[in-house]
Amino acid sequence: MSAEKKNDWSAQQYLKFSNERTRPVHDLLSQVTPHVQKETPRIYDLGCGPGNSTQVLLDAFPSAKITGMDSSPAMLRKACTSVPSVEWVEGDVTSFQGEGADVLFSNAVFHWLRQDSRISTLERLFQGLKSGGVIAIQVPDNYTEHSHKLMRDTASLPSLPWSRCFADTRIGSLDDITRPDLDPIESPGAFYNALIPHASTVNIWRTNYQHALKDVGAIVEWVKGTGLQPFLHRIEDAEARKAFLLEYERALKGKYPELVDGKVLLGYPRLFVVAVRK
Q1: 112: which DSSP letter?
Q2: What is the CATH number of the domain that holds 9?
Q3: Segments forming the whole domain that contains residue 3
Q4: Predicted confidence (pLDDT) per residue in 214-259, tens digit
Q5: Which residues pair with 270 in a beta bridge?
Q6: Are 86 and 170 members of one domain?
Q7: pTM of the model
Q8: Are residues 164 and 69 in the same domain?
Q9: CA distance readout (Å), 97 to 14, 92, 93, 184, 198
Q10: Which residue from 170, 219, 242, 265 puts its CA 20 to 30 A from 230's CA?
């Protein structure tokens, strides 16, 4: 595995909400297992992160040959420690081949691709499967949620300590691939239309999880491990980064009211796609 990358992921930050992040893995896998008949299937976990999703796959298919792939050395180091019996490789899903795969499984990595490569990458990988092979992905579908809209709004505020860090990018403009905000997820129909010409079945559903968190500060901690990272990477000054986080948290308080026990509900919609190669 390569040396540490600048602005690499934090496995520790990501795993602060391990149970909540792993729940959709189980939901996705439940629709995969009926299609896997081999005792020793070849499975690739694309964007495996710190190995939490890979462990779920290993528990379900203990005799499988499983490879976890991720672009983050920090995540892979954590995965190697957590699940030492699995093969780990560093790679990029946009160029990954997945030769001989029975299952291509992905918990959220397609969320990070831009729209010009997301569905085309999925289609390429699916077409490379043999008959009966399964591709299964889950992507956060939260572009319009307050948690993510307020990232864009806060970064776009003028004349504040962090404002200059975003002066060279057009936040919210899909034409600007250098911007820190992620692209919206395509419609279910777009995924269906791309896969059905090569599929015997395409199963698509959307779940809006409602996570009860301690307070809005916990929402900040959640997204610091994922969608907020590209924003924070642009703010190199520690004081400016702190000010940005405080303003973002202040804005969240107006959108996530306290419940009777003082907690808040973080709505987190996710889109699931499972397709079987014909």
Answers
A1: G
A2: 3.40.50.150
A3: 1-141+182-210+267-278
A4: 999 999 999 998 899 999 999 999 999 999 999 999 999 999 999 9
A5: 140, 207
A6: no
A7: 0.93
A8: no
A9: 27, 10, 8, 25, 17
A10: 265
